[in-house]
Structure of PRC-barrel domain containing protein:
Amino acid sequence: MESIWSYSADSRHAEGQDLTGCDVVADDGTIGHVDRQAEHFGMPHLVVDTGVWVFGRSVLVPVGVVRAIDPEARTVTLSCTRAEVKAAPRFETDRETMERDYLASVGDYYHRLPPRESSAT
């Protein structure tokens, strides 16, 4: 099983790739855009600004949830639904990205989601 903290081999992620500003899409619609990328404790993740969709809050998404990256369209596709992202452990401040326990709880949540088949794009 691939780690929730590693991009899948077929995601089209390139080392050093800047995803800031890319639109983020779930199985059932757009979530927002990548506000920033970070890696603490060997746990790379994306902070996604959801705009008004989740009352203007951001969500933290481990990179292992990224199904595909389209560099030309500047789109990051996730292997989960909008409801699953919304139900993830709440992200409130950047301080949390520096807390191993918080990152572990987010990783555990996404790791427990049911696997999905890749959709044709």
About this structure: The longest helix spans residues 100-111.
